[in-house]
Write a structure and sequence with these properties.
This protein is 75% helix and 0% strand. It has helices at residues 4-13, 23-39, 45-73. With 75 residues, the protein is mostly helical. It has one domain (4-73): Orthogonal Bundle (Helix Hairpins), CATH 1.10.287. InterPro entries: YqgQ-like (IPR009256), YqgQ-like_sf (IPR023164).
Length: 75
């Protein structure tokens, strides 16, 4: 599992589709769903860790985009 799309496909196997309307929020909801699947022992530890790594990475990218956008808006 290497991309956000891969995480979405894993969630889809459990009937979970996430679309809140803002990519950052989607990532946060996906992270919560992955936590719930792990707590219920529905995904392996490896799937859990890989998913969380991907989601954390994507979350940081989105935060940096937002930070850069706010800095540019102040010029």
């Amino acid at each position: 599992m290497k991309t956000l799309y891969d995480v979405q496909q894993l969630l889809k196997k459990f009937g979970t589709y996430v679309y809140v309307g803002k990519r950052l929020w989607d990532i946060e909801v996906m992270a919560l769903e992955i936590d719930h699947l792990h707590d219920a022992d529905l995904i392996s530890k490896k799937q859990f860790i890989q998913s969380k790594l991907v989601l954390n990475h994507e979350h940081k990218i989105e935060e940096n985009k937002a930070k850069n956008k706010s800095h540019l808006g102040g010029i």
